[in-house]
Amino acid sequence: MSHTLHRIKDTAQPEMDYVVLVMPARGVNNDDVVEKYGKYIDIFKKYNPVNIGGMKIGLLVDNTPEELKVNACDDAPMVHAVFRNREDLAGVLKEIKEKDYGFSVVVSGLLDHVRECAEKVGLTPHSYNFSLGVYGALDKLPPRPVLDICTMCGHAMVTPGLVEKLVADIRKGKTTIQKAASKLTRPCLCGIFNTCKAESVLERIVAAES
Amino acid sequence: MKIDYEKCKACGICVPFCPVGAISMVDGEVVIDQDECVECCLCQRTSKCPTGALYQEALQMPRSIRKAFSDPLGKHENTDLGHLGRGTEEVKTNDVTGLVYGVDYIAMAVEPGRPLVGARFADVEKITMAIAPYVLAYDQNNPTTKLLIDQEKGLLEPSIKNEKVLSCILEFKLAIENLDPILKVFEEVAKEVDTVFSVGVIAATDEQGRCPAEDIIRDRGITFENTSTKVNMGLGRPLFQA
What is the pTM of this model? Predict the structure, then answer.
């Protein structure tokens, strides 16, 4: 699914959310999947990832990169990593290009930023999935800062109710922003949740309510 | 999802984990609204219920479709695909598969229920009927496609219409000249559905790296400043050749 698309951005805030997705095409080039996932994880870990993970692989918040490599299996559909700035994104793309392991690579982020990084390392985008936004009963959506956090899991596993509870717990001193952001990271099984951005948004929500 | 009331201590730890608000406290007891529950298993998997009171019965059609679409670990056992996930590889491996190539045709991924609202298939059908005149072909590897009994009219299997899922994805190809008209259709059907839907356009670049679909989208005043775009970097091997 388009699980890394439709991540809501706040243009008033510094951007810190870039997802790299690596995927073999089933029936075409899905050979040596476990070995290659390990090689991509070896690249990811050098560029200050906020998260690394994938379905049936696990998450960086609970595993070391070496443990994630051990967890990798043939039927894991893809592996992801999340980076917090364009320097790290350009670095990881440059090395992936040089190593040329052959799986498809997709970056999710602000279009201008991704293009800038691609150009910097000599890559020409092949194709796009553009988000045209949300239609319909928009009054059913949670408030904006909560949406900024929850849309970082495309499967909707990070719930508005959990964000609201954790915000309340932070205000009561029952947890910290860092612990709350880690707790929000775990329900997203794909490893595309950006803990660093969640901390930043939680800080703003708590400050606004204080 | 069900609650074993012999085990449940009514602590409410599971309540905030429900993405559709189906779990609530009523008169000191935890209650799951079965009509709203999408069988995603998030409460059971993540809330760490201290007594293990949450359980899921073996689901039968049509209810089993809720789990297949809503639980990221749910398999589509009721279609001939049997795979995980709500959609296909779409743009993710497009450089290798050539799902979309050239600039005369594009693909769309319309996702009723996303973000965070959920959708019943009755509303999904309102969308499939509205877009039917513009759809060239639905993706045959997509599980929602398998629920369409008449693709030309956009009709869904009747028995599933009251089933609720976190989201499902309509993936289809269309001629690029129909992009602008179908965007107007979305604006109209948006007024008729009791849910939200997210819209994505999958388009390839030409030999100069240009993407005509992007120009059409921008001409409608849609910018890409408030949301992520997925960019396939063309690093898959072997590259698709038309």
Answer: 0.96
